[in-house]
Amino acid sequence: xxxxxxxITLILTHNTMDIEYIKQHRRLTLEYGRGExxxxxxxxxxxxxxxxxxxxxxxRPRRVFLxxxxxxxxxxxxxxxxxIRYVDLCDTRGSTHxxxxxxxxxxxxxxx
Length: 112
Prior knowledge:
Strand content: 25-35%
Number of strands: 6
Order of helices and strands: EEHEEEHEH
Strand order of the largest sheet: 5-4-3-6
Structural class: alpha+beta
């Protein structure tokens, strides 16, 4: 990819990553996919931030799915090629999953 190209989308082995969107997140983690209703063995890149002022969840932690891969070596190689900095939790099997009941704790029932 040339430096003067305006499109920052990087086409890699099997994914197209929107580099600008990914870099908008303050913190990135690579971990095995896990959420409220799913769990996978696929390495998954998540972005971390807080919900904005316009959200009923304003100020609470937010985790956003960004990308996933079929294998860990490919994920690490593609992130390195794209010069994306992240915390790698795959070797420890760590997770940053936040249960929904933790995020919504203290909200009135009509807001949930």
